[in-house]
Amino acid sequence: MNEKDCTMLQILAEEQSLTKAAERLYITQPALSYRIQQLEKDFGVSIIVKTPKGARLTPEGKYLVAYARKTLAELHKLKDHIISLRNEVKGTLRLGVASYYGMYKLPPLLKKFKEDYPDVKFNVTSALSPEILDLLHQEEIHVGVIRGEYQWFDAKCLLQDEHIYLISKDEIDLERLPDLPHIWNKAPRFKAMSTVQTTFSETVQAWWYERYTEPPMITMQVDAYETCKEMVKQGLGYAIVPGVFVSPEDGLHTIPLVRKSGEPLKRNTWMIYRDSTLELAIVDRFVQFMKDPYK
User: Is the CB of residue 288 less than 8 Å from the CB of residue 158?
Assistant: First the structure.
């Protein structure tokens, strides 16, 4: 089983679909099916079971996927350390970033880093913060950028903090908030993980129940802060969003939320990584680059 096979098994496990896995691998579905059949023949076991909902891994298939992930992680580490022995800033930097950061902040930063170190390549995964933590625990990425407060017991650096705002088309009275239509951003579900997190919604709920004895009047549930903002622009209600999604050009009325203690509600963005990976020149330079306030 070679590196391509390991990658194929990992993607197949993530997608649980031959069609989607083939698309990510840039091969045809028959070609993917043929390679799986060859592996099944080599090991003498069934790797997948086809169902109406997709491709389900057999117990033997799950074991092979776990082996494939471990093999790929070890191979990546081997390549990284061989390059690091020459203290050269080159190779592939593997990043996991929160979706918002990947859209609004990361592209120009990578462009500038690439200008300084042209031999560097990037492998970027955009995902939910708990998923990024999982990738870092499994050593599938070098550096993660997450949003919110999560348990991480190795190295971390605060990249930015931003206020949380209540936004509305026109000025509103906070005392009347429970009676006004609320446009709520419903966070996507993700599998349970061992990390303990303070989510955006939990932070806002704590603020709400300091002030009100009744719940908000939710009239809309949307899946993106940008959608919240567009609904607010049409006068359909108010929303509570992180500051990165609001600008003066939006023409909205904004109120920064503050706890009764006087502490402002903020949404933190953290860079997390393992101290041990700073032995790799490519990781060390990137971490220092991200810490530089003048980058």
Answer: no
User: What residue type is 213 in one-letter code?
Assistant: T
Q: Which residues pair with 183 in a beta bridge?
A: 220
Whether the pLDDT of residue 151 is over 80: the answer is: yes
Q: What residue ranges define each of the domains in the chain, with the CATH number in brackets?
A: 1-85 (1.10.10.10), 91-295 (3.40.190.290)
End-to-end CA distance of the chain: 43
Run of H or E including 116: helix 106-116
pLDDT for 196 beyond 70:
no
Q: Write down the residue that tokens 């088309």 correspond to.
A: 169
Binned at pLDDT 50, 70 and 90, residue 195 comes out as: very low
Identify which of 256, 259, 193, 183 has the alpha carbon closest to the alpha carbon of residue 216: 183
Helices (H), 143-280: 200-211, 225-233
Q: What does residue 27 show for φ and ψ, rounded to 5 degrees?
A: -135, 170
pTM (two decimals): 0.70
pLDDT tens-digit readout, 157-166: 999 888 999 9
Q: What is the mean pLDDT of residues 204-213?
A: 93
Q: Are 77 and 123 in contact (CB under 8 A)?
A: no
The type of residue at 39 is L
Strand partners, 256: 165
